[in-house]
Specification:
single chain; 359 residues; alpha+beta; nine-stranded mixed sheet; eight-stranded antiparallel sheet; 19 strands; 25% helix; transmembrane; membrane; transmembrane helix
């Protein structure tokens, strides 16, 4: 074979080899994509949803229906009482986490209680009392006191300060920004600050007395600030019945001294159980319209309430609720707030809880 013919054949062979390789590459790429698409078609997307629904069903089958503490008087809502809604929200979450007490969160142990007492400077042996409210340890030091309920996991601290001008100065008013910082620092220093405490939404109040002439509360001094930090879990309010404490309450004097503290000890008591499906907002509203839910407030100042002619609910949000310290679960509730008109034509603040889980 002539050299020039051999060279032409070699070049043609290289071209054919290149074309064949390119064709093979295209085929493999196309086949891989087709196979992947076929697998995706054969694996239906609702599989994840089915798993979620199964998980939700497993959660709702495990938890009891929520029992909200009944504080509503039978006469508050009559058959003639009308409920209206002026709520802007049209949609809230369709499912939320349910929380369960952790194994180490049922009862505060003795070692932890003594450690807390040492943080407050109490090292002596506590007095012990046991009742249907649980086991309570109390330490005394002069007029100062510290009480810890090991079953309910609550702490109360009081500093005898009324006659000490270095703690409470007559005529010297509290500076609110300073008092807030002092309260937060105190909780942190005592090892009590945790994720359950909502430090972003505090409320501040001052001592009040009732005037014998007007029979109305009147502000008399700002020497002691009462600071309340609400509780939260997963950025939603944590509400509990009267059997538990739903706030952290700190008393701060104008001399920048913490003179009282009352709080629950929930540092690691709740763990995630699983998500549960919720009833819709419209279903919750229909429940209230039909006389359901539990009205937990029908008064502005906690005084005597009377029959409601009507009430309008202007806001709603989801929160977590626990009945008492023996409950194993925290469950979501709809919280409706608004204003009612009583039978004497006076106004009243109205709050209604509706269990949110779809059982």
């Amino acid at each position: 074979m002539k050299p020039d013919n051999y060279e032409r054949l070699r070049k043609i062979g290289l071209v054919l080899l290149g074309v064949t390789s390119l064709a093979l590459l295209v085929f493999v790429t196309f086949f891989s994509k087709s196979t992947q698409q076929e697998k995706e078609i054969q694996s239906p997307p609702q599989e994840k949803s089915d798993q979620s629904e199964t998980s939700g069903e497993a959660v709702t089958s495990q938890i009891p229906q929520l029992n909200i503490e009944t504080v509503e008087a039978p006469e508050w809502r009559q058959s003639s009482t009308t409920a209206t809604f002026s709520i802007d929200e049209s949609f809230l979450e369709s499912k939320l986490m349910v929380y369960q007490k952790t194994a180490d969160g049922l009862v505060l142990n003795d070692v932890e209680a003594k450690r807390l007492a040492a943080e407050f400077g109490f090292g002596n042996i506590p007095q012990e009392s046991i009742s249907d409210q649980g086991k309570v340890w109390t330490w005394l030091r002069g007029g100062d006191s510290l009480s810890i309920n090991l079953n309910k996991r609550t702490l109360e601290y009081f500093l005898d300060s009324l006659n000490d001008p270095d703690i409470v100065a007559p005529g010297v008013e509290v500076i609110e920004t300073e008092a807030l910082g002092i309260a937060k620092n105190f909780l942190t220093q005592k090892g009590l600050m945790n994720d359950y405490i909502d430090t972003q939404n505090p409320k501040i109040s001052y001592s009040e007395t009732y005037s014998l002439e007007t029979e109305k509360p009147s502000l008399v001094k700002k020497e002691i600030a009462g600071i309340e930090f609400p509780l939260k879990i997963a950025d939603k309010p944590l509400l509990v019945s009267k059997s538990l404490s739903s706030k952290v309450k700190v008393g701060v004097s104008s001399r920048k001294v913490v003179i009282s503290l009352k709080m629950p000890l929930y540092s690691s008591i709740w763990g995630e159980l699983g998500e549960a499906p919720l009833i819709s907002l419209d279903e919750a509203k229909n429940t209230v319209s039909g006389g359901g839910g539990v009205m937990v407030q029908n008064s502005f100042f906690g005084g005597a309430s009377s029959v409601l002619q009507s009430f309008d609910l202007s806001s709603v949000y989801l929160a977590y609720y626990g009945e008492n310290y023996q409950d194993q679960y925290l469950q979501p509730v709809y919280v409706f707030e608004g204003t009612g008109i009583l039978e004497d034509d006076t106004e009243s603040k109205v709050v209604v809880y509706v269990p949110a889980v779809r059982y």
